[in-house]
Amino acid sequence: MSNTLVQSDAWKNLQQHHTEIKDRHLRDLFAEDSTRGKKFTLEAAGLFLDYSKNRMTGETMKLLVALARSATLPDRIEAMFSGQKINTTEDRAVLHTALRAPRGAEVVFDGKNVVPDVHEVLDRMASFVNRISSGEWKGHTGKKIRNVVNIGIGGSDLGPVMAYEALRHYSNRELTMRFVSNVDATDFAESTQGLDPAETLFIVASKTFTTQETMTNANTARAWLLDGLEGDKSAVAKHFVALSTNAEAVRAFGIDTDNMFGFWDWVGGRYSMDSAIGLSTMLAIGPDGFREMLAGFHEMDTHYRTAPLDQNMPVIMGLLGLWYSNFFGAQTLAVLPYDQYLSRFPAYLQQLTMESNGKSVTLEGKRVSYDTGAVYWGEPGTNGQHSFYQLIHQGTHLIPCDFIAFANSLNPIGDHHDKLMANVFAQGEALAMGKTADQVRAEGTSESLVPHRVFEGNRPSNTLLIDKLTPRVLGSLVALYEHCVFTQGVIWNINPFDQWGVELGKQLAKAIIPELQSSDVKLSHDSSTNALIERYRTTKSS
Ligand SMILES: O=P(O)(O)OC[C@H]1O[C@](O)(CO)[C@@H](O)[C@@H]1O
Known about the structure:
Elements: H1 9-21, H2 26-32, H3 36-39, E1 41-44, E2 47-50, H4 58-70, H5 73-81, E3 108-109, E4 112-113, H6 115-134, E5 147-151, H7 158-166, E6 176-180, H8 185-192, E7 200-205, H9 212-228, H10 236-239, E8 240-244, H11 247-253, E9 260-262, H12 279-306, H13 313-327, E10 332-337, H14 345-357, E11 375-377, H15 389-394, E12 401-406, H16 416-433, H17 437-442, H18 450-453, E13 461-466, H19 471-492, H20 503-517, H21 527-539
Parallel strand pairs: 5-6, 5-7, 7-8, 8-9, 10-11, 10-12, 12-13
Antiparallel strand pairs: 1-2, 2-13, 3-4
Helix pairs in contact: 1-4, 4-13, 6-12, 7-12, 7-14, 12-19, 13-19, 14-19
The structure holds 6-O-phosphono-beta-D-fructofuranose.
């Protein structure tokens, strides 16, 4: 068991401070300091953060920053940016930040500047995108490509889908974009419904090019294409491209490596939406839009690398998240974007945060004696308000919230946007300030209903208030959360860049497939799994 963190002075100071602050109400903290709403704010890379509605004071922030310092966060940040092999369990560097380094920058890994390679792939992607959108690249029968289907899962799907949805306003509406991820055939069947194979391009996105779901869907796609094009195998070359680090497997699948866009093992799957994995994003918003997005990422990277810890947005958000997880016992964190275009942002963040920080051993392999990554979840506002906000306002769990809102709507129709924004401001205020029994009584509420209508308040939130959703802002926003995750991972002394936790299920599923396909195979699982498999065998129709 590793107790090093909880035995540190910085941790103990926070524990002591927590006993002093835990019962203080945000109402009082705001009443005591009229400048609070301006004091605890920060601007970086096009984002404005108001973190004043958190259960903290200036002293809390000092102690949290001291904890980050005692975990040598600045050194760890530098180790990541400079390409040290900080993903120790996989013996890899972690250089997603090099994917957005500007042309001409230098990021040396294994004695080689990787930035020219990054831009070489970006340039090839741009030229491919231009050929598709101009119609120069034609399908096998000479038709223009009008449909793009991205096949991938996890980091090879969630980032691309999220970015496509987020940047739809900027996208080429002549291209129909679909995304297939689940091994459930329904996903493939519904996503290809109504598409003409002669006008359809499949992007097979897989870092390893071995993932069961993706390879199954890619094989089904190939059969679907050939079926629609009279079985002519040479059609594959015009209708399939691959995004991968595994050229050999791409070739073995039958995709010409000329039609492959590569990346490197120093890019983790959930950190790859700005690599070749972003080809669907580039097809949607064009090469210039994609470069703008990369510039946003880079701006946030530079801020994270250079700003002092107490002025550093990812550090502050990471520390506040940790403050609630480790000192208030919060288990989850809600991400609530008040923008329909960010409807998939919470799902994207789930992989980023939970696959990264869902760990229970330290870098040295010892069981941690403290909680690590929180459960991230959310829905776009105002839909969530009519669903689960009840629990956030009046339930027994403390759920810190991140509100994400934009001053300008990309679809300014009537007074929708003022109403949307009134709601996000109201939610933050209601959560923090609540409504006392006296206030409820003053409204003439009968005494028996008073307890039901009281809002305790003192429920924390951050508000990111951004000018407008653009490709650049999306880049900054994603980088903000990436670095937030890293900040927490460093303090918890875990590895945010491996994902061994997904392996066991994969392994067992592989072994179960033949057991489902032949009743002759003897079952040797636990009695529940055996019985379920037996029931499946007898119930399935073919
Ligand atoms: O891109 P690949 O290699 O198909 O992997 C897909 C996803 O599978 C995982 O390895 C495990 O779920 C993720 O980390 C990754 O994003």
